[in-house]
Design brief:
FAD/NAD(P)-binding domain, alpha/beta, binds flavin-adenine dinucleotide
Length: about 350
């Protein structure tokens, strides 16, 4: 007998959704979260495609703003404006995590906050999970503990080496609430792009990502983009790891969400892919428990191979797009000018690159 059928490390969207679905099948699930409060601190801009509501199962109460236009700027302030046929949502990220956690609890999962996962031991018929507040046993351990997954480290699972540091402040100003701005150029940030995502007409989430010196690039960008800053709130930062993980499984262990780099390489967004990953993770855990097969081979076949069938084409497309982030300013301007006449044809673009 184990204390739990499944222990999930990390109460982010991927971990809570996995727990919700497994508990919904009648299994005993524990979620271990190091922070005191679910969904805090927020490390996210909270911009996601129309898929967010269906995949999370949460109502529109998490939506702060809806946008349909994106402007792609070069350093010379030349821009391409694209309209999306579908709404893109700016969400309250704390509420998203909290609402999915509530669903997990409703289905019978337990959530332990203020409890840091420290280590694991794979034994003959269970996994022993060591936390700061004691140890627990389970049949399967799910690492949903973000881009620097300790579960992956302890299980010797290699993570993709590519990473960026994201930095963001919510800035007071005058914004068009239906337009997202994306700024590209080597002087803005050499490795990625900067964003201005309006919450409403007065506040926007302004940030960028870079391999190094993200805060310096951010200060320069803000000086260039805003002449006068009235106020700011919600300063945040975080790691974005991207690329296709070699194998997200081990004996009795699987990784989901950012821990498995289920992330769009061209935008750093991971909520949609992580929620898709959670479905595969939950189904696999249920199948493993039913068939009492927790081998690496089984988990690789039913989880790693299956989620990759769905997400790896999109991740590969994202890796190609990521390369265009390194184009010179001159080429960026040429590209923007060339695409302008075709902007209407791009309105069906799927921002998740899933095309399903
Ligand atoms: C600046 C920035 C902006 C972003 N903007 C967007 C965006 O607009 N849209 C989007 O889709 N994505 C965005 N992302 C990415 C998004 O935040 C992640 O993809 C998403 O949070 C992944 O969810 P997750 O559940 O896999 O992991 P997380 O949300 O990282 O959750 C992991 C959880 O595990 C916990 N944890 C970690 N280690 C331990 C441990 N040892 N013991 C116990 N608990 C532990 C953490 O406290 C955390 O609660 C952004 C990221 C950054 C850095």
């Amino acid at each position: 007998m184990t204390d739990f059928d499944v222990i999930v490390i990390g109460a982010g969207p991927a971990g809570c959704k996995t727990a919700e679905l497994i508990a919904g099948n009648g299994y005993k699930v524990l979620v271990v979260e190091e922070h005191d409060e679910i969904g805090k601190p927020v490390q996210c801009t909270g911009i996601d495609s129309h898929r967010i509501l269906e995949l999370s199962g949460v109502s529109e109460k998490i939506v702060l703003n809806k946008v349909k236009k994106a402007r792609f700027y070069s350093e010379s302030k030349n821009y391409l404006e694209l309209n999306s046929k579908k709404w893109v949502y700016v969400i309250d990220r704390h509420k998203l995590d909290f609402e999915i956690a509530k669903k997990a609890i409703k289905n019978g999962a337990e959530i332990l906050t203020s409890t840091r996962f420290k280590d694991l031991n794979i034994e003959k018929d269970h996994v022993k999970v060591f936390t700061k507040n004691g140890s627990y046993t389970c049949k399967i351990l799910v690492g949903a503990d973000g881009p620097n997954s300790t579960v992956a480290k302890k299980a010797n699972i290699d993570l993709p080496k590519n990473y960026l540091v994201g930095y963001q402040e919510t800035i007071k100003g005058y914004f068009k609430e239906n337009i997202v701005e994306l700024w590209f150029g080597k002087n803005i940030t050499p490795d990625f792009f900067a964003w201005v995502v309006p919450e409403n007409e007065k506040w926007a989430r302004v940030g960028l990502a870079s391999k190094i010196n993200a805060i310096n690039y951010f200060r320069n960008f803000v000086d260039m983009r805003f002449h006068h800053i009235l106020n700011k709130k919600d300063v945040l930062g975080g790691i974005i790891r991207y690329g296709l993980i070699k194998d997200s499984t081990y004996e009795r262990i699987l990784l989901v969400g950012d821990a498995a780099s289920q992330v769009k390489p061209y935008s750093g967004g991971g909520i949609i892919y992580g929620l898709i990953g959670a479905r595969f993770a939950a189904n696999t855990c249920v199948e493993a428990i039913k068939s009492e097969n927790y081998s690496h081979k089984f988990l690789n076949k039913f989880y790693d191979k299956q989620w990759k069938k769905k997400l790896s084409p999109a991740i590969k497309r994202g890796l190609i797009l990521h390369k265009t982030l390194h184009l010179s300013n001159r080429i960026l301007d040429i590209g923007i000018n060339m695409l302008k006449p075709f902007s209407n044809m791009l309105e069906n673009l799927d921002m998740d690159l899933l095309f399903d």
